[in-house]
Amino acid sequence: MDRLASFGNDPFDKPPCRGCSSYLTEPYIKCAECGPSPFLLCLQCFTRGFEYKKHQSDHKYEIMTSDFPVLEPGWTAQEEMALLEAVMDCGFGNWLDVAYQMRTKTKEECESHYMKNFINNPLFSSTLLSLRKTKDSRFAEGAIPFKPTDDPPRPTFDSVLSRDMAGYMPARADFMEEFDNYAEWDLKDIDFVDDDSDILRALKLSVVDIYHSRLKERQRRKKIIRDHGLINLRKFQMLERCYPKEVQELYDVMRRFARVVGPIEHDKFIESHARAKVYERVKRMREDERRKRTMLCDVLQYIQDGRACQQWLSKQAAIDAGITPAVTTITVSGRRSAPPLNLTGLPGTEKLNEREKELCQVVRLVPGAYLEYKQALLNECRRQGGLRLAQARALIKIDVNKTRKIYDFLIKEGYITKA
């Protein structure tokens, strides 16, 4: 008698007898010469000498049974399999339900046998239970983890929290209803036999491939829920509330794209968009400061002009006294020319050569402003392959005479070329 593991307790899980098509019960006969698919017979058909195609009644055979001890006396192989199936169905620790499903053992016998042989067994502790998995491999498959300090939520069936958790059951580390829950129905009646034609066999294999694709999609969806922490949705929403309001709104809009990338990449994607808005705001502030600095440069050009300063002070004094000041204009003609600008101590002077210093003194332009205007004109000249005076005036927007002098100087020195 060959002591091989049998099928489960459910008789409908066993293949039918080839002789009478009845469901097999142990012990039953397996032909040792027919193959590769097993040729199985019940005891009644075997004693009648049933023959079919290549199978002959005088072939060597094996008696299939699981009525023998495996781990300890008093527990047959069939009971071992029934115990594992019951623990899988009822959950670890529910020994009363496990014993009720087995029917042949008590609650205490089930608990002590399982703890002794499957939890505290030195063979398992040295091979399976003591393996230290890395973080990535630990999260790759299996139960969706919680931190040791966290008590996983245990919602009642069909509650709001249960729906928020996508029907996840923490005690069983599984979902109440799988995605595409009836995918197995298309596969349950398929049986591969030797009589199948090539077309029928190819059709059955195609059905199996479709089923595998459904399983992959099921695992993909579980991975998304696990990696992004979507099991406890309320806890996930509380973490989002730590962000500013505009970032929360961005999370709501961009959540549909979370399935494309991992959780870290998705967070970086959200933060980069939030920082882009900050960049635009800082950029506007920088441009405002630049305009103010340009206006200050224009004011500094007249500071050493005593007559212009006197007129400006008189105008401000009249405004402060509530008197409408007389409209006066400062004309360039008929006044003495302003002295050259003193560049001592001004920022950017050390970056100028002697000819540029002379230009800044004559034009009365601070070095920092000149360097900005010069760089802007150089960039525009490179982009267009040349530059006209009208383009230079539209670009830097200062006094047209000063623009002309800067433009002519850069042309003469070879920094830019005419268009």
Automatic annotation (TrEMBL):
Ranges for domain ZZ-type: 12-69
Q: Which SMART domains match?
A: SANT
Q: Which residues form the SWIRM domain?
A: 332-419
Keyword line: Chromosome, DNA-binding, Metal-binding, Nucleus, Transcription, Transcription regulation, Zinc, Zinc-finger
- Tell where it localizes: Chromosome; Nucleus
For this protein, the record's SUPFAM superfamilies field holds: Homeodomain-like, RING/U-box
The entry lists its GO molecular-function terms as: chromatin binding; DNA binding; transcription coactivator activity; zinc ion binding
Which InterPro entries does the protein's record reference? Answer: ADA2-like_ZZ, Ada2/TADA2, Homeodomain-like_sf, SANT/Myb, SANT_dom, SWIRM, TADA2A_B-like_dom, WH-like_DNA-bd_sf
Please report the stretch or stretches of sequence annotated as the Myb-like domain: 75-118
Q: Which GO terms describe its biological process?
A: chromatin remodeling; regulation of cell cycle; regulation of cell division; regulation of transcription by RNA polymerase II
Q: Which residues form the SANT domain?
A: 70-122
Q: Which GO terms describe its cellular component?
A: ATAC complex; nucleus
Q: Tell me what this protein is called.
A: Transcriptional adapter
Q: What is the lineage of its organism?
A: Eukaryota, Metazoa, Chordata, Craniata, Vertebrata
